[in-house]
Amino acid sequence: MFMIFGIPGPLLFGQLLLGLINGAFYALLSLGLAVIFGLLNIINFAHGSLFMMGAFAAWILLEYLGIGYWPALILSPLIIGAFGLLLEKTVISRLYKLDHLYGLLLTFGLSLIIEGLFRNYYGSSGMPYQIPPALSGATDLGFMFMPNYRGWVVVVAVVVCFATWLVIEKTRLGATLRAATENAPMVQAFGVNVPRLVTLTYAAGVALAAFAGVLAAPIYSVNPNMGSNFIIVVFAVVVIGGMGSILGSILTGFMLGVVEGLTKVFYPQGSATVIFVVMVIVLLMRPAGLFGKAA
Amino acid sequence: MWGFSRAQAAALLVMVVLVVVSPAVLYPVFLMKVLCFALFACAFNLLIGYVGLLSFGHAAFFGMGSYISAWTAKNWGLSPELAILLGGLVGMALGVIVGWLAIKRQGLYFAMITLALSQMIYFICVEAPFTGGEDGIQQVPRGRLFGFISLNPDMAMYWVTAIVFLAGFLFIHRIVHSPFGQVLKAIRENEPRAVSLGYRTNDYKLIAFVLSTFVAGIAGGTKAIVFGIATLTDVHWSMSGEVVLITLLGGLGTIFGPVVGALVVSAMENYLAQFGAWVTVTQGVIFVACVLAFRRGIVGEIGAKLRLAL
Amino acid sequence: MSLTRRALLGSTAAAAALPPRRSRAQAANTIRIGVLNDQSGPYRDTGGTTSVICTRQAVEEFGSHGFTVDVITADHQNKPDLGASIARQWIDTDGVDMIIDVPTSSVALAVNTVCREKNRTYINVGAATADLTGKACAPNNVHWTYDTYMLARSTGGTMVKAGGDSWYFITADYVFGQQLQRDTSTLVTKAGGKVMGASPYPFPGTTDFSSYLLQAQASGAKVLGLCNAGADTVNSIKQAHEFSVNKKMKLAAMLMFITDVNALGLETAQGLNLTESFYWDFNDRSRAFTKRVVPKTPKNWPNMIHAGCYSGTLHFLKAVAALGAAKAKEGGSTVVAQMKAMPTDDDAYGKLTIRADGRLMAPAYLFEVKSPAESKGPWDYYKLVETTSAEDAAVPAGETGCSLVHA
Hints:
heterotrimer; A: mainly alpha; ABC transporter involved in vitamin B12 uptake, BtuC; two-stranded antiparallel ribbon; 71% helix; 3% strand; B: mainly alpha; 2 strands
């Protein structure tokens, strides 16, 4: 067995790969956050709860209606996206004229409500959700057993991230979106219904979170706390990537996953903290984040 | 007098009377908790309410103050007033470092840096042997004030806490209503303008930050002495969230807001404890209601109704 | 104007929020029990409301003996400071005579301090730390269901005997996990095995255990000891299956409850070894107890903590009845002395005794989780592998470090 820095090579590769998988979740979640922040200027602290709701929607579909993983992968984002639509219409739309701070506080409050309610009804020891049969089992990569499902997660995450980026950067719809971010009244003047665009964007960001939730359901048990475990990290990802930068949040998501994975090899206790160290360093060196435009 | 308007002086009088009278009616240990949180929130309010800086990591100073007081009181046998003071000073020392790094950035980025640094301090508290990890520092003696007045009776402890609270409260008020405080408010309203007037705003912000962390450390230290325990709860980011909640509910930038907020939030936690996760739900509802319906908070709204600055 | 309004507002708010301090005299003939546990966090299902239900069940079955009993409850959210302040307030203002359950070792120790200072009966059921009957033992406390030593001895000891002589630990990096790892390591090395390494992980907040699992696998150890609890245990076992770690190493969940097995599902949990001191399907009496309780908590059947709350409450009430309510009110140490003087007898735990240091002397049962094919009905999850006698399952009397024993 060969060694790298005193660590067996296979172990190191294994950890890098695992980091990439975690990074896939970070990327998917921070992508949604970045889209929402870009257009709405809202820091959606409730993102973690919506991610959790996505996982719960999949579980509820299976438990009560017998609808399995594959349909849930489409249905759950639609359901939670619709919920997001409602949320934007009723509550969040009232905040656009206010300071960032209020958006943060409001969505923080929303996340407390959502998580509290789910904890009340479903307890917190977690609901089991099986890996779909087509993706169960593991592949022997030589240096580790790679569960097929996790491989699938990475592939799907990359595809979805890339597709989102493509839509925003290369299509007409994306161009309108970006224009609305820059100057909403101007776009409105061109006859675009900006409020509706904003609502749909929020719903889309929420749907992305729910999609990540369904992907996560078979890996972590479906648990009311699953979102709050992620949210602070994902937050850091978005800040490090540069608030509102789509590509930045995707790349940073994967990158931080890997950094975290490496930390787990060398100093496991510090794995929860390393991201904040990176965040402070980045913010002090590059105030607008790694990929953000200077304000 | 001391920068108090007549209405504020009247309100202050009411507050002092309530502080003196209420232990005859209410459970003193609960009141001490309210006073500690009220002081903590006053310190936080100095930053958000008067300088416009949202620190999302204030638990670090509160918690470190609490650890230091608990540790010195328990292991060095320090008398309570010295232990609390030391807690405040260590909170302040941390505040110098964190503040110096954080004021380089504005707005959200300031909040993010304070959050990140406080997460690191949390991590240190988890790993460092002196904090006792998950156990925390337990069985901290209340000790004897100035070496001879035993604080074991709840009422003796209560009077000490009340005095610490009132002193801290007046201290913050004095800062806000000094020429220094005027500059802080100018920074809150329009920082570039303050700069163009020749003020080195970063120095002002740093001093405000450090003063705030000193008071936060004092509040944490007092809490540790009152309850005889210092734990990770005090440094966790949810404590930072709680102080935001208290201040927001009471009224940002009002002198009495943090005090009323602390009373309401503590009472709620106490009496909803039996309903499990409903505490979380209620806190969430309060956040949402505050942001949507009364952004000025309880005291702010009352003040607006009466056309008075409270 | 502002003065009167403010004063009015302040005093009504305060009056509405807080009941006045109750005088203790009115409660002279009422014994008040406080169930203090996690009702919203990761340990909600292992204790939580089902513990409250089981405590109430005991009160109901005990009936009337010349004094009334009432039960109040609170959520300590796994925070030691919150737990201690609730306990203090319960005793000071609500006249609580006995506090029961209190999972999470750190909270358990904090509440222990308060109860000793105020001399109230403290029956700990839910926490693992062996210190409760060791260096933190007190004349007013009893530790009911299990502790880290018992788990290490039963699960650890048996697995070493069965050939699992090299271990790797995945440990929740706080007092409970560390203590469990320490106790298990000691037993493993004593039995001739060795410890190859350990991965402490940040608690709470870790959901992904895969990297620790890979490190465990790379260590070449035969047994993977999971020194964690609740949702963490469930997640780490699930992920061990995903990475096929369970094919190369034997999994030992050092602390696992039947409620966790239910959360995991038999498909994944089958074949696991775990230790409890109570199983509902153990004998006629335990089945009878379960039959009475399950209608009140149909989704969460009793595990050893829940049964312990029932058993502990019943024994406490018997001791109070023996002393008379007025004498029992004198202090926790009086009641606990009486509890130690008489044997327990109830449907959940049967006939047992309490040792001088406060440990309930209960045998520990090592179970294996059934396969889905073997399970014949709801919650039919365990088969018994081995029984560790009460004497062997408790820290040897001379080694606890408890000051009461030498006195």
